[in-house]
Write the structure tokens for this entry.
Amino acid sequence: MGRFLALVFLVVLTGCSAPKNLTEQIILYFDPVSADTSVRPPAKGYPFRVQVKEFELDPLYDNANVVIRNTDWSVQFSKRGAWAVRPNATATDLLGAVLKGSLPFRALKKRFPESSPDYIISGTLNAVEEDRRNNKLSARLALTLNIVRYADTKTIFERTYRRSEAVTDTGYVGIARALSNGLKTACSEFAVDAIRVFNRELEAADAQDSGKN
């Protein structure tokens, strides 16, 4: 009986002292702000209905665990960092919030169930990872965005935004913060590009209307 109690005590003691492998559930987040640029939308706004479709996610990153890039040819899936919400879904919502603050559209939605939009903004999150290459820790993000004119299905804009941010905070909160900073920059740059694109589209539409009168 004494040996049994001693064994139980040893097991309990070992279990209490053993380190716990806690998984940090992270999300992409930043406070959406209007794009700070000399390029401005028209004061009257845009008479366009624009759909922001949920971004696709590269198959490599379609995983609950954060991807760790060790070399150009090898990755692993973190046991300590996981996505609370898929990053492509969060990135879509954040871009939508930035565009609402920067471009005054007639309507900006993820879906138009009872009508068709005038333009569709879609994209692919090509990379969202912890990067351990070159003996330094960074967070890498790549996002391809495009704008399609619905009437003729023509792609009128496409660009890939690439960001690599140094990680200064410890833990996966630091990874999430660095990736979020990179996404914020990408979204702000796209807002500037989108203003230029829709300014041209508006000028073309106004010229066409003038020709009819």
Q: What stands out?
A: The two ends are 102 Å apart (CA to CA). The mean pLDDT is 88. The longest helix spans residues 171-212. Strands lie at 24-26, 46-52, 56-57, 65-71, 74-83, 105-109, 119-131, 138-149, 154-166.
